[in-house]
Amino acid sequence: MAKQRIVVMYGGKADEHSISCISAAGVLRALDTDKFEAIEVGITKNGEWIVDGEDPRKWNMSEGLPVVEKTDSSKDVVLDVALGQDGFFAREDDGTLTSLGHVDAVLPVLHGPYGEDGTIQGLFEMMNVPYVGCGVLASAACMDKHYTKVLLAAAGIPVAPGITLDVRDYDAASEFAAEADEMLAAVQQAGLQYPLFVKPSRAGSSFGVTKVEHEGDAAELAAAVFEASHHDWRVLVEQGIDAREIECAVLCPKAGEAPQASWPGEIVLDKRAEGDDQFYDFDSKYVNSDASHVEVPASLPEETLNRVRETAKKAFIAVDGAGLSRVDTFVTADGEVMVNEINTMPGFTPISMYPKAWEATGVSYTDLITTLIEGVLR
Asked: For residue 71, what is the domain's CATH number?
């Protein structure tokens, strides 16, 4: 039987470029090569699509953050939208185009804007090319934390209290100091309790997130909003929740089927035991291996774990999810579950929560990738 030919995409224009590269490296190393032939398409930070570049299987986070770059051997990828699954080409040095062959499906291992936000999903819809993951609506809505909360609240799913700021008209020259009192008044009017977490609405991997601890400190708030504005003009100011952060992997490989939920897991921040006032930032996730570890299932009563699973599935359905998502929740001391955010293309390295959660639930990394791909094949 002929192997299915799968375009595996990685890199991209988002801040999460290097995380995408590491996720793709893990996926490609684990891919069942008896069933699938990978066509590796990297996207540079400038948005150029290439093939025959550096082999992503060699990338390892311990050796630094990898970047997709053009090489002497790489070729630009050119699409002919009208040809659909036969519309992928490589541009040769003389300008001629060479077909990359029939593409059975695309696995876009892309995080953040231009990959996880519905843009590339819309392109594949236009080309009528099967792809793994959520569609245009869910991808766009879940990339934007503001609209995620709007959809979840409408479905009756609890979310953290907060406000959303449009900072496009703020005074960047003063680093938003000119709007500091206005922002503080908005926080007070909303009755938000400290600490606050200030975050860009459309970014991932904790880029631009700041913890604001001093109640009434307008300057500290303004500085946090200014930091978030480097990543998005829409900024969320959310009330910190006194709860544990519990993550649940949701899987729905075939459209129309009921979603499945893994055993929920927890990222344990090891330095908290040393009195370090730490939250799960970029370094904790990807750089400092001593900062945290994954526990699946999380150390919670089974009743609470199942409540998280049911909430995760309900949230997935509320945003019209498909394929996969990681639903991040807060679980309070009294067992209340609220949704923090939904990641439609979560980190996919072998040690990331999504594959680790499914491994603990009985689905291996390779089988998980196979299930996702086979769910969209025609």
From this structure: 3.40.50.20
For 106-150, write each residue's pLDDT tens digit: 999 999 889 999 999 999 999 999 999 999 999 999 999 999 999
Q: Residues near 249 by Cβ (< 8 Å), separated by ≥ 6? A: 261, 262, 265, 324, 325, 326, 346, 353, 354, 355, 357, 358, 361
pTM score over 0.70:
yes
- Domain membership of residue 353 (yes or no) is no
Is it true that the peptide bond before 355 is cis, omega within 30 degrees of 0? no
**3-class secondary-structure state, position 94:** coil
Domain that holds residue 200: 162-239
| Nearby residues of 174 by Cβ (< 8 Å), 6 or more positions away | none
Encoding tokens for residue 124? 């594949």
Residues 258 and 276 in one domain: yes
What's the pLDDT at 207? Answer: 85
pLDDT at 281 exceeding the cut of 70? no
200 shares a domain with 146: no
| Residue 125 and residue 170 in one domain | no
Q: Which residues contact 170 (CB under 8 A, 6 or more apart)?
A: 176, 178, 179, 225, 229
Q: Rounded to an integer, what is the distance from CA 320 to the centroid of its chain?
A: 16
Question: pLDDT tens digits for 50-66?
Answer: 999 999 999 988 888 99
Strand partners, 7: 39, 106
